[in-house]
Amino acid sequence: MEHTTSNRPWHHMSGTSRRGFLAGTTGLAFYSTLPLRAVAQGSGPSGSVVYGNAEPPTSNYWDPAAGFGLVDEQVASLVHDSLLAFDAEGGIGGGLATEWEVTSDRTVRLTLREGVSFHDGTPLTAEDVKASIDRLGAGELAQSMVVTPGISVSILSPTEIEVISPQAFGVILSSLAFIKILPKANIDNPDNFGNGGMGTGPYRFVAFEGNDVVLEANEDYWGGAPNVASVTFRYIEDAQARINALLSGQVDILTRVSPEDLARVDGNDDFYVNTDTPPSQIVAIYQHNGPLGDLKVRQALAHAIDREGIAASIMQGANPVGYSSLPTTAAFYEELEPRFEFDLDKARKLLAESSYPDGVTLRMSTSTLVPNQIEIDQIIAASLQAIGINVEVERLEVGAFRTSYNTYDINLNTLAIFNNDPDFVLGLYIGGTGEAVFHYHDPAYEALHAAQRAATAENRQEAVTAAAQYLWDNQVTLYLSDEIWQFIVNRRVEGFRRAPVLGEQLIAQVHVH
Question: Whole-model pTM?
């Protein structure tokens, strides 16, 4: 099992000078001499790959900045490009930018790749890049939390731009490797996003029909045509049906599998397991506009739930249990005190000291989004019952669960780092995202988050730890365990790898037999 981001220094330089970065340092230029994507060999793209997913797309509205779903990001990572790009080790190299220079703690100057077109043949321009980044700076989209408020692009020439942040933005390159560049025409006419994804990436959006999102190779891709001719992301809600689809050859890759799924292929030479994973946590999301707005209630829940026991039994030891609001595989992870260990007596005492000494009823939604979610939710409900908290559990189909989870008091979910930097998951608790996901707004935390975002390499560990400690002390959500993303892959798909982010950027490089 490989944890590619564990305790990586912020200024880590990986491999050649085209990867890694030293944010906050002026006058340091980076050059990308080769695209990060492999090109098709021989006669061009061939074969197909079908993923089996436990969740559908968020909707049929293909604006990658509007949501955070796994399938949405899988699709976006192939249909769209970003200015910079992650490689298999999480290093940063060139994408739609061929050169970049961090000129201050607030600015980056970039040279755009020439001769790039969107899938409809329209040339990519600096105006498209500006529109894609400026709208995030306006703060009205889900993914606005990946940038500083007011960030914008200044066009210096048709191929030269400057990204300008009003505040110090030490992790700006990680954000530029995540933000998808879209046609300005679609941004100006958002109804176009209902017609499918439109980007410059190695795959074209074909259709979303039934439970399948279908993409086909862009043979005119600037980085060379992909090896694989078509990629399908298929939603199969039932866990038994998913593993059966894999074993029968209906799907080639099963994503985020359970220990039971792994047991079904143990010793079967037709399959292998990939453990390339983004830093990710299984959490129980709390809504702070009800009883879980009370700190002592949240701390009581932390002591009432045997996280280590759940990880050892239900998860069969596959997922590490951390002591932080960050995944153990995240850069800058540190074990924090107090440990909030399983202690029913302490849980009852805290509840008695809360605004709800006689107990409370919480509403929980459950589904099959997270591996073993229903079983884990049952244990959580029983654990809380033991300290006088009643839990009403309602089972929902995954799509309904994802669109309504924040109307329930508590539900199991996953918080993953999309851009290989802890700023991403720390940023989920601020601004519009914090309000929408958690009904949470805390100016004291927002100041700590801003400080870690602005920090330089010399003091970022301290700043990240301060923000993580605040979330941990306040048990803003229940940090159950890491989630190590294990994918089962049919051996007909040769060379499958994943970058330590959410997308499937590297699928273009595999060979299918």
Answer: 0.90
Q: What is the DSSP string of 343-400?
A: -HHHHHHHHHHSS-TT-EEEEEEE-SSSTTHHHHHHHHHHHHHTTTEEEEEEE--HHH
pLDDT digits (tens, 9 = 90+) for 172-224: 999 999 999 999 999 999 999 999 999 999 999 999 999 999 999 999 999 99
Phi and psi (nearest 5°) for 394?
-120, 125
Backbone angles phi, psi at 421, to 5 degrees: -145, 135
The span from the CA of 322 to the CA of 375, in Å, is 21
Q: Are strands 97-102 and 280-286 parallel, antiparallel or unpaired?
A: unpaired
Q: Are 478 and 391 contacting, i.e. CB atoms less than 8 angstroms apart? A: no
Looking at every residue in the chain, the average pLDDT score rounds to 91
Counting Cβ atoms within 10 Å, is residue 103 exposed (0-12), middle (13-18) or buried (19+)?
Answer: middle
Name the β-bridge partners of 111: 99, 160
Q: 485 near 253, Cβ under 8 Å?
A: no
Cβ atoms 92, 286 nearer than 8 A:
no
Residue by residue, DSSP assigns 94-145 as ESSEEEEEE-SSSEEEEEEPSS-B-TTSPBP-HHHHHHHHHHHHTT-SGGGG
Q: From CA 66, how far away is CA 63, in angstroms rounded?
A: 6
The tens digit of pLDDT for each residue in 304-357 reads 999 999 999 999 999 999 999 999 999 999 999 999 999 999 999 999 999 999
DSSP codes of every residue in 437-478: HH----HHHHHHHHHHHH--TTTHHHHHHHHHHHHHHTTSSE
Q: What confidence category does residue 25 fall into, taking pLDDT thresholds of 50, 70 and 90?
A: very low
Model confidence at 21, pLDDT cuts 50, 70, 90, reads very low
Instruction: Please state, in angstroms and as integers, the Cα–Cα distance from residue 366 to each residue in 394, 399, 416, 435, 461, following that order.
Output: 6, 12, 19, 21, 36
Q: Taking a C-beta distance cutoff of 8 angstroms, is the pair 51, 255 a contact?
A: yes
pLDDT digits (tens, 9 = 90+) for 449-479: 999 999 998 999 999 999 999 999 999 999 9
d(CA 223, CA 200): 10
Supply 408's token pair: 């329930």
